[in-house]
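Subject: mismatched residue count in predicted assembly?

I count 1280 residues in my input, but I want to confirm that the predicted structure covers every chain. Input:
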Amino acid sequence: MTAHDAALPGPAGRGLLPPDEPPADAAPEDPGAAPAAARSRGRGLARGPAVAVSALLPGSAHLLAGRVAAGLGLLLTWGLGLGLLTWLRPDVRAALRAGADLDARIAAGSLLLLLGLVWTTAVAGAWRGLGRRRALGVGLWSVAGRRFRRNRLAMAGLVVMSLIYLATLLTPFLAPYDPDAQEDIVRTRYLEPSGEHPMGTDKFGRDVFSRVLYGARISLTIGFIAVAIAVTLGTLVGAVAGYFGGMADGVLMRLVDLLLAFPRLVLLLAVIALFEPSIFLIVTVLGLTGWMETSRIVRGQFLSLREQEFVLATRALGFSDSRIILRHVLPNAMAPILVVATLGIGNTILLEASLSFLGLGVQPPTASWGSMVANGRDALINAWWIATFPGLAIVLTVVCFNLLGDAARDALDPRLRG
Amino acid sequence: MTVFIVRRLLLAVPLLLGVATLIFAILHLAPGDPTSIYFSPDVDPRVLEQMRRNFGLDRPLHEQYLRWLGAFVRGDFGYSFGQHRPVIDVLRDAVPNTLVLSAVSLVILFAVGVLVGTVQAVRQYSPADHAATILSFFFYSMPSFWFALMLMLVFAYKLQVLPASGMTSVGYESLGPLERLLDRVEHLAMPATALGIGAAAGVARYARGGLLEVIRQDYVRTARAKGLPERTVVFKHALRNALIPVVTLLGLYLPFLLGGAVLVETIFAWPGMGRVIVTAIFQRDYPLVMASTFLFAVFVVLGNLLADVLYAVVDPRIRYERS
Amino acid sequence: MRAAFRAVGLAALLGAAACGGRDERGAPAEGDAGPPVDGDKLVVGTPADVDGLNPLILTTVTAQDVADQVFWPLAQANPDFLTFRPGLADEWAFGDDSLSITFRLHPGVTWHDGRPLTAEDVVFAVGLCKDQRVPYSAVRWLDRIRDVVAVDSLTVRFDFTERYPYQLMDAVVCRPLPRHLLEGVDPARLAEHPFSRNPVGNGPFRFVSWVPQQSVELAAYENFFRGRPHLDGVIWRIIPDWTSLVTQIANGDVDLVVAVLPNYVPELEADRDLVLHAFPGRRYTYIAWNLDDPLFADRRVRRALTMAIDRQGLVDALLYGRGDVLQGPFLKILWAYDPGLRGLPHDPAAAGRLLDEAGWRDTDGDGIRDRDGRPLRFELVTNADNTMRMDIAVAVQSQLREIGVDVRPRGLEFVSFQERLTGKNFQAAVAGWNVQIKVDLATLWHTDAIDDQFNFISYSNPAVDSLIDSAAVTLDPDAARPLWSRAQQIIADDAGYTFLFHQYDVHALDRRFRGVEMNPYGWQYNLQEWWVPAELQRF
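Triage response: the counts match. Full output below for your records.
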């Protein structure tokens, strides 16, 4: 074991290992890992050639060393990146020139960054030495990471999710048309899916495929920001209630009960219908109505954590409450928060779609998946593709988030189930 | 147990009042009032003034609130501006329809969910298990309104095997009792499926997990060792215990279904609470919005209570103490 | 006086008839010949719910359609909206001073509960209509009716405060109500009276049942004084979702869909079991420019924007050709409509030159015109529940972008939208009017109406004011016509609205119905005469 590997980080990298995470639970639990490590030992290349091979073809050294999954992953991503770069070369070149629009620059930048990352990871891996399998961490996150990687469905979700992200970043290059460009609205509308328009055109002759791509940004952004607001707020409320207890706890939890007793969709409808819909309002309201579950879970975590010895110890040391909460208790409550957030994003995307369906979502001509389904609904009978493709995009994305969230829950703490 | 239930119900009272007050505030903060829907050059502004007076909307806000609250506590939900009749009559028409839809949906989702979950658990890691897992994720992640539209497109428009919407056919009154039942079932099929399918996927996952846990336990092994057929082991011994956590979902899904009903009822023209509440919000029909939101909240509270009680009933290890 | 009205009416009627009609394919089916037979029912599918059946209180389209069959007026407007045909009254006559009209009721008309209809019922109803405590929407039509007197049990006289062109129309707007059922009711609580949910009328169909959110059923009134209608009954089914509605008429669960959304028209047209009836309706759609906004205070800007919008393209795309580009404030179904009105052409190049002239040029090269450092950008609001208006906003946004104008469409919930309009708190709006059948420009275009709710664009032109003032009191339509024409032309030239189009109403009806006559008055013009050949009857 090298010195590098010996430093076993505790949860979230803080030196204090929480007592509720017995190391015994972790290390021996990975039955497949030990023999694999044994097998691979001694079969790898020496460091010099490994680095050289990796630099030429990232991932190949991993493959040669018998680390098939990592090697294939790196190799495929590299291939994908290079392929995209070759295919989109004129776009990228244009984007790097002065005066290109920001969207295109971001896209070009992310593509190059992706290639850079893959290359660095591969070379760095080879440099650190592939022959020796790194020791298995026993911290919460490394154990969870291994459990997660064994979940094939979740890994598939992760791959698809990554592709969706890549697509949102590269949208200006991938989208064949301007999403808002209307052609002759009589002759080019309601065109069936074809080579020219892979998902057909809508009632304004706009390319549905391009709109689905651009819509991904809006839908994902809404999902992320709303959940970020909700999780932050929920964590804050839960932390205060759970850590201080007493009056604060009572009042805050009654508030949570009150808001949970509202049917969320009805509350959203009321607020958005009665005021003026805009992305800003939608994100805010989705965020402000989605934090209750998080706060309950965080409160539960805090209630049990605050009685733990390591927290009592920090108190004895005279640390301030905010420091204890932020640096010692919260990191140990991150696991369930992460799970709730992941599942929440999928849920939020669905809610935004419902709101758009009732005409209160994102404002045109901006496309979100929900508003696209809503617009396509009128033409469902004569142009099924308009509502179907964005609907499938919603399903695909939400499935990914749910797979990831579910797997994260299983991996981080099986007790959280049910 | 009784003490627990009574205590929970008492605690719910301020909660429900809070819900009602909050919705009152939101509604009255928004621009416009119920007379706005009559905006047209044909309508004399004097008429709108008159309506405001008739509805008591010309009073100061706090007075409106106190008057409304006073009446509300006495069980008088007021008068629906949009439907021109007492709110209680509107609810009396709509609530049973929504409850029928939700109940049927609940039965379907539990039956399907438990069945699929059981098959998955018995054939763990088989292709059927994997397929069902993927499918349940798929249905769980589907927007209910989108699924509803797809159902209608396929079964009502293309295949023409199910009625597109409504609760009964024209001429329902002239049908015989059996035909009536069949007619009702046909009309229920699509809305109940659209409403319940996502939750069914959830139930399937819980049932699978629960059963897998139970199957590994000693008494199941004993039953197998006795030479009992696998079917008996699974259905008579294992399933009964595995269903404990699933049953508690019953109470939790009730409010969930009521929320989903908002969209599904609109699409399938089901004359229930969901449609009432959406229309009422858009019409600024204050009394109706307040009463129906309140009723939703009551269902949520009852649903949660039901979940807790069921949990205690099916699992003797749980006891709710007085303290 | 009446003769003059009749003559004009005929001309207008011919004009209207020429532009409407059936989209028929192939010869009528068998069983068409022979005298009409009784039987069968009509099932109407409608997205709008019913909010009450008392003709004084109701507000929704469906409720209005139902009440039209249950309650008859003294006289009915012809499709020219100028002349009248007998209703409950057989005949009527103006007094010598033209300050009164005397109606002679048809003898032996009964309410659906069997009690006879008398002049007292007419007097009673007008009393309620005029009562300030009753929120009767057309109350301002009754402002100039001084008194109503029952001369004898079958004769009723309306006295007016002054002479004006619409005396007859105002006299018949308030439909008689059964005094024996409603006498003594508190006018402020009229809507709550059980009568609103269980109406007793005098029309060709009597009320049977109303299941809220689901259906309303009427049955033929056997003792109707003009003879029993041929159909046994009419049922309205309330189906709020259009996909569902179209599916139901395609399946034959529903016989009639009124005012089909344009995008479903091609689909229904292809259905061989349906006949489509298309008529110029009473609705038009426009873009309102808020003249209080410095951007739109400049007439050149408004005219340029109007010319940059491809209105014929909108008609073709959004209405599937079922509509006319509108140039001025009158629809062609109104007698005062001027076919010679000169509108603005679709000419983006000229529009661009006009904007250049007004000082709006793209000086910073971002593709958007600007002036004094301010880009030519505005918010275009509309109500989000109306898909067509949202579509217009999106299409206009794209078309105006071509000439360097940056439009930000925004959909609002209906009531918020109305509040923004009446509060003059908007820049530009896609909106529409459902026009009344009177020729009237004062409500929308008169300077005096700026403080009222409806001239929310704050349009003010002294020339138009004086034309409206004199035309509105000119009794002879031929003398009034040139005044209305000039007013229309000025309003069109000023481009306070960009008039977009006059939409046709397309009604889809099952083939089995015979004797159907639809016209701009409405689909139900002669519903009591519809019939179905015995072998095709379904109910």
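Confidence is low (pLDDT under 50) at residues 1-30 of chain C. Marking this ticket as 'not a bug'.
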